[in-house]
Each structure stands twice: as structure tokens, then as C-alpha cells.
Design a protein that fits this description.
single chain; 2 domains; binds S-adenosylmethionine; four-stranded antiparallel beta sheet; about 425 residues; alpha/beta; N-utilizing Substance Protein B Homolog, Chain A
Length: about 425
């Protein structure tokens, strides 16, 4: 094998199983394959894999310019990864082309085509870097579901959907932020963006458990929740890996954590240990909860298309097929219904999804309110320091299409507070 071939072969196989079999990068087998490499190779592998997915729409457009006939899926994936390396990551083309040709031979695909196409693309790479993606180039399922976006939201989305995510950190309290050793661009008294990207595990205070990584958009709705009485009962229905729960626990509230996934509960426990937080943990299907025990606040951070996290999870657009909206919408509906039965009078449901699509946002809330006249939308009430973020609120909902804040990237998100009035 030539230098760099083995790791590129693994990258090809990972991309192929995401594209063809709808696997996600945190799939156990894929993680095993990634972790089988040396530390320095893992960062190369992650860099090429994630960027191949982020730039696959650009790369596919390039392929269509150079190849006029239909090609096999394996040829397409191999070309996407090679084009990303040559055009968008500026790697030395001869190494990329040599490895790609060897991989093509092993895959028994047309290596002459790979060789010739990549050589032609290399010659034009400066011109190809400037290629633009239009809204029409996005996956069909996404275009259909995002029709309500305004032209300026669409333009903004196209500008930033394939960028690297920024790292936003949330602290247990103001004191812990003050002693943080890295440069932080503050977003509140207890949160901020890391000025320079780095592997957070390598930050000294990581092990001290003073902070966790949580996107600004997903932090914002609970940061503005005002609850004076510490004895109120909270339930986080879908808690793992834990960001929202950490926000509530670090303020000293009585919170029960639940998640259906055993695997994700393990991650949640590891995170709680590191942060020196603890609480009652359940591992149940929330839609099947018994209804004797009642709560004052129920957080539903529901399973969703996750399209708001497209920068962190570029596989959402890379997969051959879109999310199963019917299944997701049904479970979101069932969760709202279950929470409504578990809530005390005057209690609040905080419904959240990392999606900005109406079918998972406003439409779910209107369906719920038509069925339940004992609920109403509760006003989103800002802490004074957060007034500057008021553009993130519309009609009393938090609604964020992936955007930038102070020059840093934030996810798309939706949150609604629903109050039980009877
Ligand atoms: C968006 S994630 C939650 C993220 C979490 N709140 C946080 O801040 O880190 C959705 C979670 O819902 C869980 N889930 C999916 N279906 C569920 C169900 N029927 N009952 C309980 N949890 C469920 C998933 O395992 C997943 O961990």
C-alpha cells in the first residue's frame, strides 16, 4: 500500500456507509473504525470525512461538469473525497490522485476515469474554489420542508451551512467563568465562544468540571427561564447527553433526568461525573411514562431532523435519503401529549428541537394548542442582559436559522414555552 492509502480507504468506506446505508458518524462500527487509528491520523480522518460531507454539494456539481455519464456510487464517493482534498483543503494533488487510483483498483471501479477526472480538476482548482451553491442545489426534501424561509434567511443559510461549527462553552456559574484560562468571547455572564478552536479535552480545567460545551442556540431558551422557587419539580424527558440538564442542575433545581437510550445514558452519566453533578436518572420511553407523578416543569428536547446542527452533522445533507419526518413528527406529538398529562396546573412545558423547519416547530405547537385548550403560549421573558438577542424571538418562540453571533457560528433552533392554565 502507498503512503496515506489505508486511511483514505477507511475514509471512503465511512463516507460510503453514511451515504448508502444512512449511518451516522457516531454509529458504533464507524467509531470503532475511527478509533483504530493513531491520534494524529484521527484528526486527518475527521477533517477529510467531515469536509467531504460539508462540500459534497460543491464536489457533486464539479463532477457533473467533468463527467457527462452516470457513474457508480463508489466512484462518486471516491471523487467527492478526492475533490474536497484537492480543491477545498488544498492538499498536494499527486498524493491524493495516486491514493485514489489505488483505492479505485481495490474497489474494482474504473480507475482510469478517477485518474483523468482528478487531473483535469486539479488544473482548474483555483477557478473551482469559487463555485457557488444555490438554494436549488440543496436536497429536495429540505427544499420542500423549508418553503417558509424568507429570501434573506435562505441567502444566509447558503452562506454558512457548510462552515465549521464554533465552540460555545457554558459555565456552572459566573465565578467559574472568571477563572477560565482560555480567551472567551462572552455571550452572557456564564457563557462564551472559545476565541481559538481547539480540542476542548486538552484544556486544563476540563477535568475540573467547571463547564461543558453547548451551542449558544440550545443554551439560550433555558438561560432565560425565570424560576424563583427552588422546590419546583423539573423533568428532562430526553436528557442525554445532558446540556439542558446541566443548566438546570447547576442552578440548584430539583431535576429528574430521563432518556430512552441506554447507550446515551452512559454518556450522560460520564458527563455528570465530570461536572460533579448528580440527580435521579431514569431510562424509559417517555411516551409510556406512568402518570401518577406530576411535575412543574417538563423539558422536551425532542428527537428531530437535527437540521439546525447541519454544520456539526453534515451527514444530514450527505445521506442518500432525508429524515423520516412522519416518524419524528409522531413522536414529537406524543411527547407533547404525555408531558401535558404529567404537568401540574400553572406548570410549563419547554418544547425544543434543533430544527428550524415549521413541521417540527410552529406546526407542532398549533396542533397541540388546538387539542389542548388548557394550555397557552407563555411569554418569552428576557433577562435584561439578553435583550440584545431579541431578534432570535418571533411570536414568543425562539426561532433561529443557522446564523452567526459576534462572528461565531450558532445552530438553528426552536423553543416554545407552553403554560398549563387550567
Ligand atoms: C435532542 S436529543 C436530547 C439532547 C439533550 N437534551 C441535551 O441537551 O444534551 C434527543 C434525545 O431523545 C432521546 N429519545 C428519543 N426517543 C425517546 C423516548 N421515546 N423517550 C425518551 N427519550 C427519547 C434520544 O435518545 C436522545 O438522547
Amino acid at each position: 500500500m502507498i503512503k496515506g492509502e489505508k486511511i483514505r480507504f477507511d475514509i471512503h468506506n465511512i463516507l460510503y456507509s453514511v451515504y448508502k446505508f444512512n449511518k451516522t458518524l457516531n454509529n458504533k462500527d464507524i467509531q470503532k473504525k475511527i478509533n483504530g487509528h493513531k491520534k494524529e491520523d484521527i484528526s486527518f480522518l475527521n477533517n477529510v470525512t467531515l469536509n467531504s460531507m460539508r462540500f459534497h454539494l460543491h464536489s457533486s456539481k464539479i463532477i457533473n461538469r467533468y463527467i457527462k455519464h452516470k457513474i457508480k456510487d463508489k466512484e462518486k464517493i471516491l471523487l467527492i473525497s478526492a475533490i474536497t482534498q484537492i480543491v477545498f483543503l488544498n492538499f498536494k494533488e499527486y498524493a491524493v490522485i495516486n491514493c485514489s487510483v489505488e483505492i479505485a483498483k481495490k474497489l474494482k471501479i474504473y480507475h482510469g476515469l478517477i485518474n483523468a477526472t482528478l487531473k483535469n480538476i486539479s488544473k482548474d482548482k483555483e477557478k473551482l474554489k469559487k463555485l457557488d451553491i444555490e438554494f436549488d442545489d440543496l436536497p429536495l426534501w429540505f427544499k420542500n420542508k423549508s418553503k417558509s424561509l424568507t429570501d434573506s434567511q435562505k441567502k444566509n443559510f447558503l452562506k454558512n451551512f457548510n462552515q465549521e461549527p464554533s465552540i460555545h462553552i457554558v459555565f456552572k456559574n459566573e465565578q467559574k467563568l472568571k477563572i477560565f484560562e482560555e480567551t472567551l468571547i462572552r455571550t452572557s455572564t456564564i457563557s462564551g465562544f472559545l476565541k481559538d478552536r481547539k480540542n476542548v479535552i486538552e484544556i486544563k480545567s476540563y477535568e475540573q468540571g467547571n463547564w461543558w460545551v453547548q451551542d449558544f442556540s440550545s443554551f439560550f431558551p433555558l438561560q432565560n427561564l425565570k424560576v424563583k422557587e427552588k422546590n419546583k419539580k423539573f423533568l428532562d424527558a430526553c436528557a442525554a447527553p445532558g446540556g439542558k440538564s446541566f443548566q438546570i442542575l447547576s442552578k440548584g433545581y430539583n431535576l429528574t433526568l430521563n432518556d430512552k437510550s441506554k447507550f446515551r445514558i452512559q454518556t450522560l452519566k460520564t458527563n455528570l461525573d465530570r461536572l460533579n453533578l448528580n440527580s435521579k436518572i431514569l431510562n424509559k420511553d417517555f411516551t409510556k411514562f406512568h402518570e401518577e407523578e406530576k411535575y412543574d416543569f417538563i423539558i422536551i428536547d425532542a428527537p428531530c431532523s437535527a437540521v439546525g446542527t447541519i454544520r456539526k452533522n453534515p451527514e444530514i445533507f450527505f445521506k442518500n435519503s432525508g429524515p423520516d419526518f412522519k416518524k419524528l413528527e409522531t413522536i414529537q406529538e406524543k411527547m407533547l401529549e404525555k408531558a401535558s398529562n404529567l404537568l401540574n396546573k400553572n406548570g410549563l412545558i419547554i418544547y425544543m428541537v434543533c430544527s428550524f423547519l415549521n413541521c417540527e416547530n410552529e406546526d407542532q405547537i398549533s396542533k397541540f394548542l388546538t387539542k389542548r385548550s388548557d394550555f397557552k403560549i407563555f411569554n418569552f421573558d428576557f433577562y435584561i442582559e439578553n435583550i440584545k438577542y431579541s431578534k432570535m424571538i418571533s411570536n414568543n418562540f425562539v426561532k433561529i436559522v443557522p446564523d452567526t453571533l459576534q462572528g461565531y457560528n450558532i445552530d438553528g433552533y426552536f423553543a416554545a414555552y407552553l403554560k398549563k392554565i387550567k
